[in-house]
Specification:
The longest helix is centred in the last third of the chain and has 32 residues. By secondary structure, this protein is mostly helical. The protein has one domain. The chain is 65% helix and 0% strand.
Length: 258
């Protein structure tokens, strides 16, 4: 019988970006979870398209937003993040056994929302005359996924609560740049993404605290240890404090950012 955790492997291993999103959206959330199944990982995770070329993040240079190419490059960078976010959520579903069923349905639902975000950005990119893969991109999000693959606490503590939470901080600035350049459609898409990403980070906070409680750990000090252990880049302002509060960060955690 197919389970939700087995179903996550299909889109995770898919190499075509659009097909990955489509398969993710088609997964039936009412499948039995199979939370105690021990799954054998495929040889290649995640499935990646031949394009875009993946390069160091500091080698990706912006272009003027006064040009269509410059706006497309910025939209492409957000689309790439959303594609990675699909893989990150799917990987959590299949990789870590033995958690409550609602853990897996939460992350599959998140994968489906990330797939929706990618498709919205992909269609907008096409309206600008470009396709996903036309520009280089970086691999920083997935590199952190690989570093945290052996510990669900580290994965949930660092990826949604740190790296994806940075999207909450960055979204208003990216939106304002694109609207200022006349791309109001992109601004509308980013509004949708921000609203739903708050929920994704909130799920990260909720499950991080659950895992800390299960292990008898104090969340704030444990988070500081994880950041140091996994050499996570220091977060820098500006911070979207309103969105972070909606996502469930404690005031103590927000004060530590300042």
């Amino acid at each position: 019988m197919t389970t939700l955790r087995i179903a996550a492997l299909g889109p995770l291993c898919e190499t075509d970006a659009v097909r990955k999103a489509e398969i993710t959206l088609a997964v039936n959330l009412s499948l039995p979870v199979g939370r105690n199944d021990v799954l054998t990982p495929p040889a290649l995770i995640p499935g990646r398209p031949l394009k875009p070329e993946l390069i160091a993040h500091n080698l990706i240079k912006p272009k003027p937003l006064s040009s269509v190419e410059g706006r497309a490059l910025l939209v492409h960078s957000v689309a790439h993040i959303e594609l990675n976010a699909i893989d990150l959520a799917l990987d959590v579903v299949w990789r870590f056994p033995g958690l409550p069923d609602s853990f897996y349905t939460d992350w599959m639902h998140i994968a489906q929302e990330e797939a929706k975000h990618f498709m919205l950005l992909h269609e907008h990119l096409r309206s600008l005359g470009y396709n996903y893969g036309d520009f280089a991109a970086h691999n920083a999000l997935w590199e952190m996924a690989e570093r945290t693959q052996h510990d669900v606490l580290a994965r949930i503590g660092i990826v949604p609560r740190t790296m994806e939470a940075r999207g909450l901080d960055a979204s208003p600035g990216v939106k304002n740049k694109l609207i200022g350049a006349g791309d109001h459609k992109a601004g509308q898409i980013l509004d949708i993404i921000l609203e739903e990403e708050i929920g994704h980070v909130a799920a990260g906070n909720r499950w991080y605290r659950y895992l800390c409680q299960e292990r008898g750990l104090e969340p704030v000090s444990t988070y500081a240890r994880l950041i140091d252990q996994y050499d996570v880049p220091k977060l820098r302002p500006p911070f979207n404090m309103a969105a972070r509060r909606l996502a469930g960060f404690a005031e103590e955690e927000l004060d530590a950012l300042l």
